[in-house]
Amino acid sequence: MSRRTFHRASEAERRQDLINATLDCISELGLQRATVREVATRAGVTPGLIRHYFSSKDQMLQAAYREVMTGMTSKVAAAADVGQTSARARLHDFIVANLTPPVADGRSLSLWAAFISHVRVDPAFAEIHRESYLAFRSALEVLVAEVLAEAGEVPDDTRCRELSIAINGVIDGLWLEGTLVGDLFSETPLPGIAIKSVEALLGGIKLAAGDQPT
Fold this sequence. Notes:
The protein has helices spanning 11-29, 36-43, 47-53, 57-81, 87-98, 106-119, 123-150, 157-181, 190-201. By secondary structure, the protein is mainly α. The protein has two domains: 1-55, Arc Repressor Mutant, subunit A, CATH 1.10.10.60; 57-201, Tetracycline Repressor, domain 2. Helix 1 (11-29) packs across helix 2, helix 5 (87-98) runs antiparallel to helix 7 (123-150) and helix 8 (157-181) runs antiparallel to helix 9 (190-201).
């Protein structure tokens, strides 16, 4: 177990340090063993300081779950925007980012597995999950609409939403398989399978990596 050096920082930075320490605990020990005392030890602070930022363990865990969900969305959105002018390239990179580290790795799986059981029984976790899902799907809908427009089609709202739901399903399924038994796909990388599946859903529109010609 590593102990963080808790430096003098702003309120926001200190809170973020505590969230990061919470996620480290959950990834390594599980949700039940991620106690306030354990998080404090990891962060190099007293339990009393944690209570200054979070009124309860539940609130601390909720903040950690929100960090996981929003962090994954921001990482893939950033990957889709870096220097790309083609909508098909942005959607391609968005899909690949979802199925490669750091979004698809053992730590992400550990955190997802620890949190997901709470979504069905805890209204606060369910609301965080719902908000994050809708934000992710909204980003995907924008990309799909841009791809359709670039291909000369009218990006109908209903179709974009349905395509986004289907594409998200493809991503979720392959993400889970890849993080659980990734060694089984060394000869057939999952990002390539996802791209082909999404191209089929889009009616044959080809996605291209980077700014390669299509």
